[in-house]
Amino acid sequence: MSTSPLADLPHETARLLEEIAALASLEQLRDIEPSILGKRSVLSSLQKSLGVLAPEDRRDAGAQLQGARRVVEAAFEARRSDLAALARAALLESDRLELGDVVVNAVRWPASVGHPSLVAVTQRELEDVFVAMGFTVSEGPEVESDWYNFEALNIPPAHPARGMWDTFYVELGEPETVVLRTHTSPTQVHLKEAAALHGSLPIHAVMPGRCFRRDTPDARHLATFHQIEGLVVDRGIAFSDLAGVIETFTRAYFGPDIESRLRPAFFPFTEPSAEFEVTCTICRGAGCRTCSQTGWIELGGCGMLDPAVLDAVGIDGDEWSGFAFGFGIDRCAQMRHQIADMRALIDNDTRFLRQFS
Ligand code: FA5
User: Fold this and answer.
1) What is the pTM of this model?
2) What are 292-305's pLDDT values in tens digits?
């Protein structure tokens, strides 16, 4: 008489249960899973061996094997959750703080209540400078549609100039139609639209706010930073008006010792366009790591409004003209306070922060 293929099943089941009980970590459990429950496991090869049985014996043997498999699977899952609980407990234990790990300072009075960040202070100072020059202050949304951030600024989809702004997209609506604004320029669009709608031209406004770019942080860049946008829409505005505003701003904010210059540049929404630079205050123009050895730091872009961006919001470009600018607030703070690396602004090192309280 031939022996049943399942003669060893009780013994094999007991062996598997012992093996499972002996598992000491989730890694071991993961490693051993294929040999206990997988295609090459003892249980699977026993399953294959049932083919030699007569059909009426095969059903009983199949049920017996299924029963054994369920026991092994249940033991395996129970061990998995025990080991997971042990791993969690070990992690909590290793993270536990001992009394000596925490230094509790007796509260001294008056307790420190913190202070506005250097960037917030700088933003207020810049607003003050422009308000003194007759500008109003407006704010716009940080999440924008593609139209406000790009299209209304003369940057249609797939335009190569989009490469100038490495954009974070928000998962809303059609793919790549909602963005975290890459600059404050979309706020100009909101202002121009509202003025066209309400017939409230001219505009002399600045618009500060937070911007976002997929820029790798370095000595002069952060992924979340701040700009202050300027917009003038009026009759008979010339480039000399723009240059005059920038010159007045530089003297008011940085004082007479800082040299500034405008260099020709390209922005799709202004023509002509320029970059506004100041002497690097870290090296006083000699060249250093902060200014990439150039002696100059770019603070912003500016230019005369392209008539196409006035048309886009329904303002008659024959009657109205103007200029716009966008300065980095963090950059202004960096140059004014000679901060060699902009990342210090977000490191939260209290020794650094305390200097600006
Ligand atoms: C612009 O963003 C244009 N919107 C400026 C503009 C407005 C031009 C109106 C013409 C008319 P740009 O990408 O060069 O341009 O940025 C302007 C300034 O923002 C930079 O000079 C810099 O001071 C600041 N800036 C830009 N990217 C970063 C960043 N990743 N981190 C910190 N500051 C930044």
Assistant:
1) 0.72
2) 999 999 999 999 99
Give the sign of the dihedral formed by CA 10, CA 12, CA 18, CA 21. negative
Please give the Cα distance from 239 to 137 (Å, whole number).
Answer: 22
Phi/psi at 274 (5° precision): -145, 155
CATH ID of 118-356, from 1.20.120.1460, 3.40.50.1820, 2.40.30.20, 3.30.930.10: 3.30.930.10
Closest-CA residue, ligand 1 atom 16, reads 300
Model pLDDT for residues 298-341, shown as the tens digit of each residue: 999 999 999 999 998 999 999 999 999 999 999 999 999 999 99
Atom 20 of ligand 1: nearest residue by CA position = 300
The domain locations on the chain are 9-104, 118-356
Please name every residue paired with 327 in a beta bridge, in sequence order, or none if there are none.
228, 300
Identify the residue whose C-alpha is closest to ligand 1 atom 23: 328
* CB-based pocket (< 6 A), ligand 1: 183, 185, 213, 215, 221-222, 225, 227, 229, 267, 270, 273, 298-303, 324-326, 328, 330-331
Which among 257, 314, 245 has a CA at the least distance from the CA of 285? 257
